[in-house]
Amino acid sequence: MRNKKKELPLIRDIRITDAGAEGKALGHWEDKVVFVRNAVPGDVVDIQLTRQKKNYCEGRLVNISSYSPHREEPFCRHFGICGGCRWQNMKYEQQLHFKQKMVEDQLRRIGKLEIEDWQPILGSPLIRHYRNKMEYSFSNVRYLTREDEGTPEVEKNMNALGFHVAPTFFRVLDLRECFLPPPLSDQIRLEVRKYALEKRLEYYDLREHRGYLRNMFVRSTSQGDWMLIMVFTGDDKGSREALLQHMVSKFPELTSVMYVINNKKNDIISDLPVHLFHGKDHMMESLDGIRFRIGPVSFFQTNGQQVLNLYRLVAEWAGIQPHETVYDLYTGTGTIANYIAGKARAVIGIEYVESAVEDARLNSELNGITNTHFFAGDMHRILTPEFIAQQGRPDLIITDPPRAGMHEKVVEQILDCAPQRIVYVSCNSATQARDAALMKDAYRIVRVRAVDMFPHTQHVESVMLLIRKDC
Asked: How far is CA 11 from CA 53, 55, 57, 166, 431, in A?
């Protein structure tokens, strides 16, 4: 006879004291930390525990008996389901407070770092409609909300166009509104949804890997360019061209309409041909007069207004002199490298993705920049003593690695070439703390500033200036 699973308790009147990782709030019960979603620091809540470990618990919010003064009414009907804006129920000034606290906690607790100057967090100019790139998925298995249950439409149509809902990847929330991108992005998605429903186009089955409509991307720039990329599983020219032509006719704002045929079992399209149907095969963006060509799979920061503030901060802290050589590690499409090139003797950009390096070179050519040099490959294999001897020892290193941070060998190579200054941009202050701790014997941390690129989420960027101790 199987043992009956132990029923976990309902705990009452737990005061929420902090906002934690993954958008969860936390409080304390007995000698444990308790994590729960959709609560705000200052709330007093009842929590049904769903997991109980030695040092922590997780639970589901059941009731709020006392509301926090920091609480705000969510403005999106999908709040609490799609998972995209988990802090929407918290006033923006409090979001900034807890993001700065998160960065400070991770740098001090994990890295045990001494920081000479903590700068106040830099808030986003826009807290709604700030994202310039959105990816939506088609699924024939809709995530059913309370609003959906019992409605005739659901019985006839289980298709959904929107975001995946954890923990089951194949269920997709049928988005009716989203406040992340500009309103036109929402209108484009809703029109595709309406057209697909009227024409009875087949949505993708994520378990069986079949179905015609798979993904769609909507991208935009501050220059007024709009790009739609539709991803199909098959080459049904008639259906494809009818849909794309409908969108071109409906939205004259679309400067690029493209499509991809993807029959693979993953959604990655960067390794597939992207076909042009209408307009240009790229968009243009401009940051302080530096122009950037953005292709369909090019990376560009998604908060278009705040990225300019981020790059200005990097340039200011870098303090580049005309005689200096700068290394830009994890350069991507060369946005930072090209942005600061006019201040330096030379800028050396290194990036793993070959296509990104090609974009970086194109962006230099586009702006008439001749003092940038870009290299593709594994960072720790490129950044060797021979490479440094050939390109020149860096006076300054700017590094903007992925969430995993820098490879330990890369940190060792930075210490070996001993630049006078390092500007470390991070989207994960925990790995930034780990890397900076490896350099703290040789470098002092002069200042740190958190930068909010993603309002209403728990994500935050962190910029750190390190100066060699013997300088």
From this structure: 15, 16, 11, 25, 34
pLDDT at residue 407 tops 90: yes
Q: Is residue 82 predicted with pLDDT exceeding 90? A: no
Q: What is the pLDDT of residues 136-179, one digit of tens each?
A: 999 999 988 777 666 665 556 789 999 998 877 789 999 999 99
The pair phi, psi for residue 174, each rounded to 5°, is -80, 95
Query: Which residue is associated with the tokens 């100066």?
Result: 467
Q: What is the pLDDT of residues 185-238, one digit of tens each?
A: 999 999 999 999 999 999 999 999 999 999 999 999 999 999 999 999 999 999
Q: Which residue has the tokens 């019992």?
A: 150
Pairwise CA distance, residues 58 & 113, whole Å: 30
Three-state secondary structure call for residue 250? helix
User: Positive or negative, the Cα torsion across 247, 252, 253, 255?
Assistant: positive
- First CA to last CA distance, the chain: 72
Distances (CA, A) of 67 to 38, 58, 89, 139: 12, 20, 11, 37
Decide: 313 and 449 in contact? Cβ < 8 Å.
yes
Residues involved in catalysis: 427
Question: In whole angstroms, how large is the CA radius of gyration of the chain?
Answer: 24
**CB 154 within 8 Å of CB 141:** no
How does pLDDT run across 283-294, given as a tens digit for each residue?
999 999 999 999
> Using alpha carbons only, what angle is made at residue 367 by residues 324 and 308, rounded to the nearest 5 degrees?
75
Query: Would strands 44-52 and 56-66 be described as parallel, antiparallel, or unpaired?
Result: antiparallel
Task: Give the Cα separation of 377 and 353 in Å (integer).
Answer: 7
Residue 113 contacts residue 445 (beta carbons within 8 Å): yes
